[in-house]
Design goal:
The protein is of the alpha+beta class. It has four helices and ten strands; from the N terminus they run E-E-H-E-E-E-E-E-E-E-H-E-H-H. Helix content is about 10%, strand content about 20%. It is globular and about 45 Å long.
C-alpha cells in the first residue's frame, strides 16, 4: 500500500524493561494527529476499499480538539486492509490500571476526547512522590514516558509495553462500546451465515458506535489471529519470561501505513 506523502510526524520511544514489566526492544510508535492531518471538515465519510490510500480524506469531521470525533468505520476498513483486526472501542474513565499484553502487539487509535497515557511503567514502578511529567518527559533512568493523547492519534505498542490511561477529558465512566468482552466486535447471532455476513455485521456495530463517541474513546486493533491478555506486572518474571514476550511474531504490515518503510516495517527491523 503506497503512501501519497509521508506522515506529518512519527515519534519513537525505546522503553527498557523494569523489574516487573518486560516492555520491548522494539520502539513504541506514535503518529500524532495521524488522521486529523488528512481530513477535510463536514464531508461525507467514504467507503475505504483495501486498495485505498491511508491518506484518503474525510475520515472524520474535525471542528476543535474538544469536539473532534473520528468515524471508526473507515479506520476499521484501513486496519483490515493491513491485516489488523478491530477488537474493541472503549470509553475510558478517569484512570485505569497499568497493564501490558504478553502475546499481542496493539494499535490504539484515539476517536474522541483527550487524555494522558503513561507507557513503560507498571503501577508498582511509580513511587509515591512521582507526580505527572511534562509531555514526553522520561522518569528515572529513562524509564517510562507520558504522552498527551488527542483525537486522530495512532499508537502502536509492541507486545509487553505497559500502558495506563488517565486524566481523561471529558470525564465519563469507563464503558465498552462494542459488544462482547473486548475480543471482537461481532454480536452473537443465529441463523444461516453467508459469505460477507461477518464484515457486514461489524460495519453495522461500528455505525451504531459512532453516534456514542463521547468522552475519551479509543479503538483497539491487533494483528490477524492475535488475542490480547491483561497483565499488570510480575507474571512474566520467571526464567525466559521476558524473552517469550519479546519473541511475539512481528506483523507484516503497519496498521495504517501498510508496507511503507516509514512505519513499523522500518522501525521494528
Amino acid at each position: 500500500m503506497a503512501l501519497a506523502e509521508p506522515p506529518k510526524e512519527i515519534r519513537t520511544y525505546h522503553l527498557p524493561p523494569t523489574p516487573s514489566i518486560p516492555n520491548s526492544p522494539l520502539p513504541l510508535l506514535h503518529y500524532p494527529r495521524f488522521f486529523t492531518h488528512r481530513l477535510s471538515s463536514h464531508r461525507p465519510t467514504p467507503s475505504l476499499s483495501p486498495s485505498a490510500s491511508p491518506l484518503s480524506p474525510s475520515l472524520s469531521s474535525p471542528k476543535t480538539r474538544d469536539s473532534e470525533t473520528h468515524d471508526p468505520l473507515p479506520i476499521h476498513a484501513l486496519l483490515k486492509s493491513n491485516r489488523w483486526t478491530t477488537q474493541w472501542i472503549w470509553r475510558y474513565g478517569p484512570t485505569q490500571q497499568s497493564h501490558y499484553h504478553s502475546a499481542a502487539h496493539e494499535c490504539m487509535t484515539v476517536l474522541s476526547g483527550t487524555a494522558r497515557i503513561r507507557f513503560g511503567l507498571g503501577d508498582d514502578d511509580i513511587s509515591e512522590g512521582d507526580g505527572e511529567r511534562e509531555e514526553g518527559e522520561r522518569g528515572e533512568a529513562g524509564k517510562g514516558v507520558e504522552i498527551e493523547a488527542n483525537p486522530g492519534d495512532v499508537f502502536i505498542l509492541p507486545a509487553g509495553t505497559a500502558h495506563k490511561t488517565f486524566r481523561t477529558q471529558p470525564e465519563m465512566e469507563m464503558e465498552l462500546l462494542t459488544p462482547g468482552e473486548g475480543h471482537g466486535v461481532l454480536r452473537e447471532g443465529a441463523g444461516e451465515r453467508r459469505e460477507g455476513d461477518d464484515e457486514r455485521r461489524v460495519e453495522e456495530v461500528l455505525r451504531e458506535v459512532r453516534g456514542r463517541l463521547k468522552g475519551f474513546t479509543m479503538m483497539g486493533a491487533y494483528p490477524e489471529g492475535s488475542q490480547w491478555d491483561f497483565r499488570v506486572g510480575g507474571e512474566d518474571c520467571g526464567e525466559g519470561g521476558f524473552e517469550r514476550v519479546w519473541g511475539v511474531e512481528k506483523p507484516e504490515r503497519d496498521p495504517v501505513l501498510g508496507e511503507d518503510e516509514r512505519g513499523l516495517r522500518g522501525s521494528w527491523n
